[in-house]
Amino acid sequence: MIYWRLSAFYLFYFASLGALVPYWSVYLKSLGFDVVQIGELVAILMATKIVAPNVWGWIADHTGRRMSIIRMASLLAAISFIGVFLGSSYWWMALVMSVFSFFWNASLPQFEATTMNHLGDQTHRYSSIRLWGSIGFILAVAGLGFILERHSVDWLPIIIIGLFAAIWLSSLYVPERAAGHQSLDNEPLLRVLGRREVLSLLIVSFLVQASHGPYYTFFTLYLEGYGYSRGVIGQLWALGVVAEIGVFLVMHRWLPRYGARRLLLVALLLTTLRWLLIGKLAGNGWVVAFAQTLHAASFGMYHVVVIYMIHNMFTGVHQGRGQALYSSLSFGAGGAAGSLISGYLWNGFGPQWMYLAAAVMSACAVWVTWQGISDRW
Fold first, then answer.
1. CA distances in angstroms from 147 to 141, 150, 219, listed in the order given
2. 297: which DSSP letter?
């Protein structure tokens, strides 16, 4: 059944994300890197998303062979990640992370396009498939929290490369025919990008992911500074994704009922609240736990809405590049900027300033949405 084949890819892809995002900074710290170097190295992971999705998106849109590209990119990501075992200097790690992430970041936008095309006129049901990615993230982040609390962090790269291999294997079971697309129109891409709503949505995507920079890069180290154990931190990461799954289960009803713009505004307002709480009250475990439940809005609700809007703004031959642009400008440019700024703010002013800056960025995203995206959404 195609549902389970699509879901398996999301499961393993986001399990690898659940290993990398919370714990890669811990591994880099164990190699002796400081917070600025960690911020720069994680920024490389994000920055490759600026280029990779657009390169592979252009190829996919012109060949129609998305799954072939996904399989090749997934295999090359697993092979190139082996480089982390061959050296630990700053420049070597920068090179390895640039190469493996160039391939790793290529596959997800094309798989998103594959999934949306397969759903046809049922695109609001995307969240019921994507939730398996959240389940994979939970299993990885919670499990690794306890594993790394009891064993050396040196196990992390071994586990990650196993997950990369699982991504590649799962991609083999998704048929190429599910990746095809119909050329619904041939409107020039620049004309699509020139629309106010398209430009506004891309700006919002950049700001939201930049605001997540402190969270994805330093949340684990940040909470360790307040005395939280890695096991508890892993549970807090998992709590956020459990809340995200809850939203995924209802988004197929909420999206037609409330509309994309209204849900996006709610998500962005709650994102701003989340960063303020983590920045000012991280010493209170109950407050942090509540802030983690807001991941349902800052990622779950936000992501489903944006994927839906991108799919409807970039039609026909532009579907692959639309998802690629979203990935490159948000998770790529936004994520890289957020990681870099976070490292510099922590080093120069203190860790709380990272989250205050994040709250400002998400508040700016609220204003851009209010001004730039019409009520018709």
1. 10, 5, 18
2. I
Residue 169 has pLDDT above 60, yes or no: yes
Does residue 199 sit in helix, strand or coil?
helix
- DSSP character for 299? I
Cβ-Cβ contacts under 8 Å for 106 (sequence gap 6 or more): 52, 53, 55, 56, 69, 70, 73
What predicted TM-score, i.e. pTM, was given to this entire model?
A: 0.72
Phi (first) and psi of residue 327, to 5 degrees: -65, -45
Task: Give the number of other Cβ atoms within 10 Å of residue 368's Cβ.
Answer: 18
Taking a C-beta distance cutoff of 8 angstroms, is the pair 317, 309 a contact? no
| DSSP codes of every residue in 303-372 | HHHHHHHHHHHS-GGGHHHHHHHHIIIIIIIIHHHHHHHHHHHHHHT-THHHHHHHHHHHHHHHHHHHHH
Residue at token pair 């998992």: 238
Specify the DSSP element, H or E, that contains 226. Answer: none
CB neighbours (10 Å) of residue 60? 28
Residue pair 125/71 in contact by the 8 Å Cβ criterion: no
Residue ranges and CATH numbers for the domains of the chain are 2-178+194-372 (1.20.1250.20)
Identify the residue whose tokens are 């879901």.
7
Q: How confident is the model at residue 182 (pLDDT cuts 50, 70, 90)?
A: very low
Distance of CA 269 to the CA centre of its chain: 19
Sequence-ordered list of residues with C-beta below 8 angstroms from that of 90, at least 6 positions apart, any chain = 33, 37, 41
pLDDT digits (tens, 9 = 90+) for 290-343: 999 999 999 889 988 988 888 788 766 666 677 777 877 887 788 888 988 998
Alpha carbon 69 to chain centroid distance?
20
Tokens 């430009």 -> residue: 199
Cα–Cα distance for residue pair 4/279, rounded to 1 Å: 39
Q: Which of 138, 171, 143 is nearest to 300 (CA)?
A: 138
Residue 276 has pLDDT above 90, yes or no: yes
